[in-house]
Amino acid sequence: MNKHQIKRVSKISLLNSNTRKLIWSWALFDFANSSYSAVIGAVIFPVYYSTYIVGEKSLGDLLWGRAISLSMFLAALMSPFLGSSRDITGYKKKTIFALVFLGSLSVSGFAFLKPLDIYLGFWLVVLANFSLETSLVIYNAYLPEVIPVSYWGRVSAWGFGLGYLGSIFSLIIALYFLNQKQFSFIWLTVSLFWILFSLPLLFSFPADIKGKFEVNLLKKAYKKTFFTLKEVFKNKNLRFFFLSYFFYLDGVNTVIIFSSLFAYKTLGFNFKELVYLYLLVQFTSLLGCFILAKPFDKFNLKKIISFLILFWFCISLLTFFTYAKTLFWVVATLAGLGLGSIQAGSRAFFSALIPSGQEGSYFGFYGLVGKSSAILGPLGFGLVSYIFKSQRPAVLWVGLLFLLGYLFFKQIDSRI
pTM (2 decimals)? Predict the structure, then answer.
């Protein structure tokens, strides 16, 4: 915790009704976009696109990895601009809801895809995933701005926890349409879910403070970004945090993106089994978030995150040696416990490193690193899978990402 956060702690009082309302409205945004993350990003659509739209399994892996990587690359480029311009102009809610609308509209477009609409599906995925990831830059920056510092860890965990609850609900709805082979209704439901549960943030959060929108906003935003970059390089803890975060989050993102494809193609899971497997993962992820919610605020957060990174490295090795469906159910259960908790802990840990009043700029850089980290992993997994005609060697690539993340994370000052 730095001097900026220490100053904030002294101002904290008991939560009033308005703050509680802001907390739940903020957390519900995680609930809203979880429908996309679960149904489109992780479970049903990757297999649907790879199998029914593309048709050839290895090519499907390659194109899916490229679509996600491209969207993350574009989001990485935009994240600093969004973060800095957010601080300059004050346009927060307007921007975040424009992105939600664009993303949900793209998902609705999936309903019109036919077999061999490879490139239309590819670009719709890029647009939808780009919208989600860039909206999260603004969303994450709200955490240290409107939530009391002594609640950052648990509120961050509550957000991810509600996100997993949203995944469970959206997957149950998707399962109903899946049983009837009504895939178009699945995509339309996800689109509606995303918009509907984003509304509490729109109505509950403070109105945008209208700053001066200047013609040279892009220049000023990136100038502010480069200033932030210089400040990051001056700070040892921030330097090593971002290096570590880049690698271990890359591992997490790759697991999310390719886990259903691994289960489907390598272990022989069918669509229904994938949904049930993911429901189990969401439940254990929800459990993991709420178990660690208070410990995030009460104990050494660095030690908790270090343990979680090593935990993920072990999960990767265990997955490599998994050949039976039964064992993969066990692996998935364990993975779920560490999924949301490592993301929630990272968000809270980073919030304690940034100066007051610079939330947008620093979370813009946080977004830049986070989105960039989702380029290398999926590209590497898809490429290794394509070269070896097997997904198993690609799992070792994921394990290497976690190992590198752990080694860099150990360099951060242990007193934080």
Answer: 0.73
